[in-house]
Amino acid sequence: MMLYKIAAIVAVFAAPSSAFYMPGVKPQTFMKDAEVELKVNALTSIRTQVPRDYYKLPFCQPAEGPKMASENLGEFLTGNKIQSSPYVINMLRESYCQILCQKTLGKNEGAALNKHIYHSYHHNWIIDNLPGAALAWTEEGKRQKHYAGGFPIGYIDDENQKKVYNHVNINIDYHQVVEGEDGYRVVAFAVEPYSTKHKFSNDYVWDGVNSEGYRKPLESCSTNRLFTNDDVVEAQGIALGENIIYSYGVTWSESDVEWASRWDVYLSEDHMVSARVHWYSIINSILVVLFLSGLVANVLVRNLRKDIATYNRTDNIDELEKDETVDETGWKLIHADVFRPPTTLPMIYCVFVGTGVQLCVAGFWAIAFSAVGFLSPARRGSLMTAVLFLYVFCGIFAGYVSSRLHKAMNGQDWKKNVFLTATLFPGSLFALFLLFNIFLAFSGSSGAVPFLDVFLVMLLWCGISVPLVFLGSYFGYRSKPIEFPTVTSKTPRPIPVQKLLGKPVIGMTCAGMVPFAAAYVELFFIMTSLWMDQYYYVFGFTLLVYFILLITCAEMAILLCYYQLCAEDYRWWWYSFFVSGSTSIWLFLYSILWFQHLEPSKLIMTYLLYYGYMFFISFGVFLMCGSIGTLTCFWFVRKIFSSIKVD
Q1: What does pTM read for this prediction?
Q2: Where a domain ends, among 267, 284, 300?
Q3: Does some domain include residue 119?
Q4: Residue 333 domain-assigned (yes or no)
Q5: Are 247 and 292 found together in one domain?
Q6: In a domain, 601, yes or no
């Protein structure tokens, strides 16, 4: 019954709904023959992860030159560079074989086209904020439509020759707002690319355009019907001095899909297979949680209750004398040392826990807002912008938690603690981002963020996040000190030699496998979306897996912390952090294996970007999971030692 309720809740969040556009995206209505603007985004390739400016290649440009479309901070940070295009499209007006321009390839233009086709770069076109799907024919003669990743700029034939797609059929679906009235909305957009060596009739050559349009017709395609595969006589090759004529056709189809639901097909591609896998992931994760909960319950309800009852017996002296060996071992003996601050980097420990809490809170709200539709793909860059602002504003939690722990450990130099909390993780990440941005700028990538936006990110960090960390620290240091149920002795107790399986390094390394196992299936979809230009919008599943991940981290930390204390090893502070934080080790190892899905090119920048950012993502997971393990164990240790009578 409980699983049924959980399934119902997730189905509500995960399923696309008709209210998808409710938070702030206004529909655009076109009159008949009104201009429908086609925009071009940066060229992308999953093999290189280095986006390129569309007009760096020999493609047709608008007569007045390309104009940058309005973009938000998130779009720039994710490498989007949306610009105007020379394509002329009018609502419900069909056209066939419209000549766009002719480009004569020089040495540099030909080399650039060859290079980008070899690295599998794709066009990314946009109409009415809707990305273009790719239409293609399979070897079996079936027509397929792919809604993510755009369409390729060319291909490599059987003779290893590179061919460029120079003709496109643009298929647009529209929905009439009110039947019988003039007013239409774009609800789907697909591009079918072709490579064909265009020829003019009667051996004419290109002579440009006059006021009446192009003077000379093409014999390679008809202006009266749609271009098809049967019209391709010879594919358009790439060679020095080659003249490439770009052309296009536009067709319109009426659709029953309403504007508010037009993204559904983008987000539900391969829906049945994907849904089954997501449910498998959820069931797998729930089983892991139930198994761990059983183990923890066994420890808390049976072993721990028995230990506390034994330690607190005072009514039977003879029985105590008989069982006095019970007090010779166990976790009670370390009551004078269990709250001793860590001897290794105690300030860094406080900083890590505070930063982890900041990431936990920001991550929760980002996923929650996405689950209810506020951060939809229709608002390009909104997720990145939200993550950035949420992290910045959650700095107050980092300052508060870090300062509270630092004060509880009687830490010195509170200014240094606050400064490190505000700068250590975000500063390292910003330095890596700045380094990669310089590399991308020198390589001519459109993924290089403009200086103004880099300055804005730095301003958000220094002007908002840092002051909020200081504010949180102020409240933390002003709060009442955390009281411990036992008094710490001046002399540390010797720690017994641990067995091989009881050594802390074993638990800290292997424990993270369990939380990782609870989330790895969903992780595949997230990695695919992050690195392969796929759409991900089942944030209802993500929210549930997020909670399961945190619960398993907490349960593993409590379980192993208890056994460590039973072995009279009171060094639980860092141990509890690494036990749950070691999930990040398995995440990074998984990312190494997953990297082959990209079929990466040999460009060094591909490896730097992927492994650099995956390392910091894994480190962020380390801080996030580690902070959960620490705070849970902190509560657990205080609880059990406050339940026994200590002389």
Answers
A1: 0.85
A2: 267
A3: yes
A4: no
A5: no
A6: yes
Q: Are residues 382 and 237 in the same domain?
A: no
Q: Rounded to an integer, what is the distance from CA 599 to the centroid of its chain?
A: 20
pLDDT digits (tens, 9 = 90+) for 93-105: 998 888 888 888 8
Q: Which residue has tokens 């103004």?
A: 452
Distance between CA 194 and CA 190 in Å, rounded? 13
Check residue 417 and give its pLDDT.
92
Report how many helices (DSSP H) and strands (DSSP E) the chain contains, helices first.
19, 16
**Across the strands, what pairs with 156?**
162
Taking alpha carbons only, the member of 62, 122, 125 closest to residue 88 is 62
CA atoms within 13 A on the CB side of 239: 6
pLDDT, tens digit, 9 for 90 and up, residues 553-609: 998 898 888 888 888 888 889 999 999 999 999 999 999 999 988 888 888 889 999
Domain assignment of residue 95, given as a range: 26-267
Q: How far, CA to CA in Å, does 500 sit from each of 506, 511, 567? A: 8, 15, 12
Give me the chain's average pLDDT, please: 82
What CA–CA distance (Å, rounded) separates 72 from 80?
10
Q: Is 101 exposed, middle or buried (CB count within 10 Å of its CB: 0-12, 13-18, 19+)?
A: middle
Residues 571 and 620 sit within 8 Å (Cβ to Cβ): no
Task: State pLDDT tens for residues 141-150.
Answer: 566 778 778 8
**Residue with more model confidence, 74 or 483:** 483
What total of structural domains would you count in the chain? Answer: 2
Q: What is the pLDDT of residue 312?
A: 64
Alpha carbon distance 314, 646 (integer Å)? 12
Whether residue 182 is found in the same domain as residue 231: yes
Q: What is the mean pLDDT of the segment spanning 382-391?
A: 89
List residues bridging with 123 in a β-sheet: 151
My answer on whether 280 and 210 are in the same domain is: no
